[in-house]
Specification:
Largest sheet: 6 strands, antiparallel
GO molecular function, one term: sequence-specific DNA binding
Number of domains: 2
Order of helices and strands: EEEEEEEHHEHHEHHHHHHH
Radius of gyration: 20 Å
Structural class: alpha+beta
InterPro entries: Homeodomain-like_sf, HTH_AraC, HTH_AraC-typ_CS, RmlC-like_jellyroll, RmlC_Cupin_sf, Tscrpt_reg_AraC-type_HTH
Strand content: 15-25%
Keywords: DNA-binding, Transcription, Transcription regulation
Pfam family, one: HTH_18
Protein name: Helix-turn-helix domain-containing protein
């Protein structure tokens, strides 16, 4: 889909819309909408791209996508293979921050919540133990109706303002100004990179996908992501490497290196530590110790 205004089915008589989805996979293209999206990934995994931010998402995580923030929850390849019976299960809450600010949040008692809502442009992940409180509040919003839903929703927003476990997503708001043509191009680029990261992707190859010269592509990609093409590609690869290491389904780190598109294990080890702050072995050890 183009990165244009994606219309959320928000009834005119509703301030807050809740959607529970059970689908084969997440919507597969970069998109945006004027509504803030609170997303509880009850079941599912893949890569989240939001503005210039990217990381793996896993079951149980909660995210806030800012208004007009282009994003994609890119489900893992296994959700599209047809060989595994996999699905995503999510609860999404949508609200228009402008509409909310003109009405409920205009009350003097709502100053703290209004300040929080006005600062959501780059989005957040709710991390740590406080995500359990947030999930409980989301469930209350989903299970209530009409005035009780509004009360539960205000309570949810209050929890957001008091939690200290908010991890910012994007670090730049420049992507909000992306045009329709640029959005289509960025979607093509992202789709190609996350689908072909296992192979050697040359600058000439990805530039052709973007219909730009190599020099123009480098400037374009940096402008819209604040990252180099190689840096972004390596992030995709390391995210996938982390998934493989945590699964335990590999024969050695050279095997992980090969599966994720690195030309040799030395380069893989270097990029892995630069990206995560840990060597692959330290990363694996930390996970095993965490289970103990």
């Amino acid at each position: 889909m183009k990165v244009v205004q994606f219309t959320i089915p928000v009834p005119k008589e509703s301030t807050v819309v809740v959607q529970e989805s059970i689908l084969p996979h997440y919507y597969n293209h970069l998109h945006r909408h004027r509504e803030v999206q609170i997303e509880w990934v009850m079941e599912g995994s893949g890569i989240l791209i939001a503005g210039n931010y990217m990381q793996r998402f896993e079951s149980g995580e909660v995210y806030i996508i800012g208004p007009n923030q282009s994003h994609i929850f890119k489900s893992d390849e296994s959700y599209f293979s047809g060989t595994e019976q996999k699905q995503i299960h999510s609860v999404s809450i949508f609200f228009d921050p402008a509409h909310l600010s003109q009405n409920i949040l205009s009350l003097p008692e709502m100053t703290g919540i209004r300040r929080f809502v006005n600062g959501l442009h780059n989005g957040f992940q709710i991390a740590g133990q406080e995500s359990d409180i947030i999930k409980k509040s989301i469930m209350e919003v989903m299970q209530t109706k009409e005035s009780q839903r509004i009360a539960s929703f205000i309570s949810l927003l209050h929890h957001f303002t008091t939690t200290r476990d908010l991890k910012p997503l994007a670090t730049s708001s420049s992507e909000h100004r992306i045009s329709e043509v640029e959005g289509i191009r960025m979607d093509r680029i992202f789709q190609y990179l996350v689908s072909h990261y296992k192979k050697h992707i040359t600058l000439a190859e990805i530039s052709e996908i973007a219909s730009l010269t190599p020099q123009a592509f480098c400037r374009y990609f940096k402008k819209h992501t604040d990252k180099t093409f190689i840096g972004f590609l390596n992030e995709v690869r390391i995210n996938e490497a982390c998934k493989i290491i945590l699964s335990g389904k590999f024969e050695g780190f050279s095997d992980v290196s090969y599966q994720t598109g690195f030309d040799n294990v030395t380069n893989f080890n270097r990029v892995f530590k630069k990206t995560t702050g840990l060597s692959p072995r330290e990363y694996q050890k930390g996970f095993i110790e965490g289970l103990g």
